[in-house]
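[Q] Does anyone have a clean structure-token version of this?
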Amino acid sequence: MSKENIQELAEKWLNGTATPAEIARLQQWYHDREVMLTPVPDAAMAERIRKNIQPGSKRRPFKWISAAAAAVLLLIAAGYYYNNHREPVRQMAVYVPREHQNRLVLPDGSAVWLNADSKLTYNETNNRREVLLEGEAFFNIKQAAGRPFVVKAGACTATVLGTSFNVKAYKNDPTVLITVATGKVQVQDQHQQSKVLTANKQIALEPITGVIKEKQVNAVVYKAWIDGSFEVNNETFEEIAHRLSRKYDVNIHFDNASLAHCTFLASFDQAADLPFILSMLCKINNSTYRISEDKREVTISGSGCSN
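[A] Here you go.
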């Protein structure tokens, strides 16, 4: 595909108008080709973003893209434009494919870690900084007097001045999870329900029902993924399967539907690969797994939970 076709597909994916076939073509292109640069209106801003995208350790199981490649692969669009009030707006959009992670520094100096298959758009004006997130990200927000930082994810909006927190809001997940590591975050849903979270507090928001559940957690567990670890905190096998699918770019199927509802509590370090994680989980509930020859399909079999 030509550079123009890829740019068109990327823009359609970012604004939500791409068809499943077009998304598949774009994801396949990311796998087949390593880098591509889309024209950037403001060269100085592009250079600043490029310098601030940082790779991770090669020991990590995710494919952390090199600094130069990341700047080109992930930078879909960035630059300045003017709104109706002639106020300068800085904008950029980033997509991290499945099987990858990336850390970048936004133009305002805030750091963001993006998990696999995540999309982020950033807009900055003289009095507001706003991010739209689909997927998972950990934010370390730089304070800026008079300019709140707003994260819109799924059905909720989080507003902060300076703090660090994790947001998990994948498109097909039934809940949006917001976990605060430091500082304070105000969260509001589409029904105008509002909560203020402090360190080690988490809310789970169900967009369909409007239910909000708040609890005390260890925030370290929910940001462990940025260091390559894989933490399982009382999650069902189905929820874990979704995470593994994004982490290793595989499709996971259950021969027995009841297996999907088994719950686990486990911790895997950055050296754990997919077969090791599957073998440990299957051992816990007396199930087995098999991986296809092309390494794209995983089937889990068994009679169900052992407890």
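[Q] Thanks! Anything notable?
[A] Residues 20-32 form the longest helix (13 residues).
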